[in-house]
Amino acid sequence: MEKILIKADKRSELGKGGARSLRRMGLLPAVVYSEGNSTPIKVNRKEMTKLISSGVGEHALITIELNENGEKTAEHSVLVKDYQNDPVTEKLLHVDFMEVSLEKVVTVTVPLVITTKPVGVKMGGILQHRMREVEVECLPTQIPSKIEVDAGFVEIGHSLHVRDLPQYEGVKIVDDPGEVVLTVTAPVEEAPVEAAEEEAAEPQLVKAKGKEGEEETKKEEKKTKEEK
Hints:
alpha+beta, RNA Polymerase Alpha Subunit, Chain A, domain 2
């Protein structure tokens, strides 16, 4: 398991004004929560944004190397608890970390990655995703970055369930084994457009012919009267 290291400093800049000041300097306000305690910190904004946007940071174990007032550094094993983005620019504004013990089981979500396209899709079926991540229990050091899904055997009209997912040593999937991860449905057949247009046009043609017939009849009646 690759170690993700983030360097941080304790921060004294608090409140909205302090947070804005940090962001202007390229830093990101954050908080580390641990057994009822909270420690305000600041981290490199660009580095943290890259980690979160990659999708890895949301699920992986992170080691924060905390510089405490320039006197000493201490390593803290954490998970991302929550983060906030700007609703307009979508820039990362704040991150909450939860400190964890490396010897205690944690519950986290892990993304599902399809490695093989279902045979049903190759036959024209439509792939429908029902789950894109699962919840697992394991030690922090055993959190998988992803669970790879071989869906090659799924035919049209069939599904892949949680029970079909691969098992990792020391990792227990918490979700219901019967839940559907993905399914392949048959393509929807649509009525031919040309046939529908012909059916719609037919009454108009009959109506048109009826008008022509009425005009012919009137002409014949007028001709007969003139001859008399």
